[in-house]
TrEMBL record:
Cytoplasm recorded as keyword: no
Top-level taxon: Bacteria
InterPro entries registered for this protein in UniProt: CBS_dom (IPR000644), CBS_dom_sf (IPR046342), Diverse_CBS-Domain (IPR051257), DRTGG (IPR010766), HotDog_dom_sf (IPR029069), Ser_kin/Pase_Hpr-like_N_sf (IPR028979), Thioestr_dom (IPR006683), WH-like_DNA-bd_sf (IPR036388)
A Pfam family it matches: 4HBT
Species the sequence originates in: Sporosarcina psychrophila
Domain CBS: 195-254, 256-314
PROSITE patterns for the chain: CBS (PS51371)
Keyword terms of this UniProt record: CBS domain
The protein, known as: Transcriptional regulator
SMART domains in the record: CBS
Length: 435
C-alpha cells in the first residue's frame, strides 16, 4: 500500500505542466496535513517535478534530462511573467534557446529570430505572425492581445503566444534572472552525477565470512564495500581496517562498521568530499530515502569531479566567484593578497561585510598552504575580529602567516590592513586532504 508521501508525488506527477500548486491545495485535495504536503512538495522539487520561482510560486514542470545548458520551458516563462496563454498551449512543454526583444524594425528583428526563440514585443501584430512562421514563440507585453489569425496559427504550429501585463524591460529582467539562477545551479555538482550505480557496485552480505572479504579485496583492490541485506537495505560498511587481524571464519556482521555515514544523490559533491575529509573515510554509500543502497562514491571520484568542474567554462557567477575575482597576489610577497572593496562585498552600511571577508580569508589561506605544501585544504573553524570599518572602495591587504602545520591540520593567522592600518585580525584552522 502506497504511503501518503508517495500518493502526493503521484498526484503532482499527474498535474499538467505549467499548473501552479500550493501546500494548502495539496493538503485539501488529498486530505493530508499541511506538514505532510510541504515535505512531499519539497521532495518533488528535488526530483525536478516542480520548480519554485520567486514571486510566482511552485509550478509543475516537465522533468528534463541533464543537459550541458539548462533551459527554461515556455510553461516556466508563463509563470515567471504571470501571463495568460492566448494561443499554442500545446507547445508549453518546449524549451526556449534565447529571447529577443522586439525594439527594432521588423526586417532587422528577424535577423535575430530562429526556431526555439522567444520574441518579446508589444502590440505589433505583423511581428507576432512573422515570428511564429520562423518557429519562435511570442510574449506580448503591456497586456495587449493578438489577432485571431495569430492565435489560430499558434495552435496549428504548437508555438505558445503568451500575454503579460508587465512591460518589456521588466519581463526581460525577470527571464534573465531565472536563466542566470539555473546556470548557477547547473554548476553545483551532485553525488548522483558521479556515483557508481548499484548495478556496478560490489556488495557483501552480513552473513559472509571475513575470508570472503579478503577474496573480493584481492580481486578488486578496493578499500571497502557496503554491506546490505537481501532487500538491498544498507546495514554497514567493511574496510581493510575492519578486517585486519580478524579470524577468516568470523562473520562480517561482527566486524563491519554499523550505521555508516551516508549521502543521498542530491547531496553536493563538495559536501560529500568534506565529510570524507573530516571523518577520514574513503568510501561513502549513497542511499535512497528508504535507506536502500543506490550506489557508492570514493574519495578518488570526488577529487576527479572537483578537478573536472574547475576546468569547465564559467556560466553563472556566484557571490563567492565575484569576491575571488577581486583578489590579486603581490609579486614581491607571494603569500600576500590585495583586493578592492566593491559594492557586492559590502553590507547595508556600506562597509566590508563579514561574509565577503570570510570568503577572502579562506581563499588567501588556501593559497598560502598550497605554496608551502601542495594539496587541498578545507577550513574547519575561524575566529575573526573587526577593529575598524572597511569602507567601499578601500584597497585591503591580507597577510596570512602559517603558525603551525602538521600532517592533518594547519593553523593560519591573518593580518588585514588598509593604508597600512590594521583593520581586522583572524585565525583559521584548516584540515588537509590526505592523498
Amino acid at each position: 500500500m502506497a504511503t501518503k508521501h508517495e500518493l502526493i508525488l503521484r498526484y503532482i506527477e499527474g498535474l499538467a505542466v505549467g499548473e501552479k500548486i500550493s501546500v494548502r491545495q495539496v493538503a485539501k485535495a488529498l486530505s493530508v496535513s499541511e506538514g505532510t504536503a510541504y515535505r512531499a512538495i519539497k521532495e518533488a522539487e528535488n526530483q525536478k517535478l516542480v520548480n519554485t520561482i520567486e514571486r510566482v510560486g511552485t509550478i509543475r514542470i516537465e522533468k528534463k534530462k541533464k543537459e550541458n545548458i539548462e533551459r527554461l520551458t515556455f510553461a516556466e516563462v508563463l509563470n515567471i511573467v504571470d501571463g495568460l496563454v492566448i494561443g499554442g498551449r500545446g507547445g508549453l512543454h518546449k524549451t526556449l534557446t534565447k529571447f529577443v526583444i522586439g525594439a527594432m524594425q521588423l526586417d532587422d528583428m528577424m535577423r535575430y529570430i530562429d526556431a526555439g526563440s522567444l520574441l518579446i514585443v508589444g502590440n505589433r501584430l505583423k511581428a507576432h505572425e512573422t515570428a511564429l512562421l520562423a518557429g519562435a514563440a511570442v510574449l506580448v507585453t503591456g497586456g495587449f492581445d493578438a489577432s485571431d489569425e495569430v492565435k489560430k496559427l499558434a495552435d496549428e504550429l504548437e508555438l505558445p503566444v503568451i500575454s503579460t501585463s508587465y512591460d518589456t524591460f521588466t519581463v526581460a529582467t525577470m527571464l534573465n534572472r531565472a536563466i542566470y539562477d539555473q546556470l548557477i545551479e547547473k554548476e553545483i555538482l551532485l553525488v548522483e552525477d558521479i556515483l557508481t550505480p548499484l548495478a556496478d557496485t560490489i556488495t557483501l552480505s552480513a552473513k559472509d565470512q571475513v575470508t570472503h572479504f579478503h577474496e573480493v579485496n584481492d580481486r578488486t583492490s578496493h578499500t571497502g564495500y557496503p554491506v546490505v541485506e537481501k532487500k538491498g537495505k544498507l546495514v554497514g560498511v567493511i574496510t581493510s581496517r575492519d578486517a585486519i587481524g580478524k579470524m577468516d571464519d568470523e562473520l562480517i556482521e561482527k566486524v563491519m562498521t554499523r550505521h555508516p555515514i551516508t549521502v543521498t544523490g542530491k547531496t553536493s559533491v563538495a559536501s560529500a568530499g568534506h565529510s570524507m575529509i573530516w571523518e577520514g573515510i574513503d568510501l561513502l554509500p549513497v542511499v535512497s530515502d528508504a535507506g536502500l543502497l543506490a550506489g557508492i562514491i570514493s574519495r578518488q571520484d570526488v577529487l576527479k569531479a572537483l578537478q573536472m568542474t574547475q576546468r569547465q567554462p564559467q556560466q553563472g557567477e556566484t557571490i563567492d566567484d565575484i569576491v575571488k575575482n577581486q583578489m590579486k597576489s603581490i609579486p614581491e610577497q607571494p603569500h600576500t593578497v590585495e583586493f578592492t572593496v566593491i559594492p557586492q562585498m559590502t553590507n547595508q552600511f556600506g562597509s566590508l561585510s563579514y561574509g565577503a571577508l570570510t570568503t577572502l580569508l579562506t581563499e588567501a589561506g588556501n593559497r598560502a598552504i598550497k605554496m608551502r605544501k601542495r594539496g587541498e585544504s578545507v577550513p574547519e573553524n575561524m575566529s575573526l575580529y573587526f577593529i575598524k570599518n572597511v569602507e567601499l572602495g578601500s584597497i585591503v591587504v591580507v597577510i596570512p602567516k602559517i603558525l603551525h602545520m602538521s600532517r592533518r591540520f594547519v593553523k593560519v593567522d591573518f593580518d588585514i590592513l588598509t593604508e597600512g592600518d590594521l583593520v581586522a585580525k583572524a585565525m583559521i584552522m584548516y584540515q588537509l586532504f590526505e592523498r
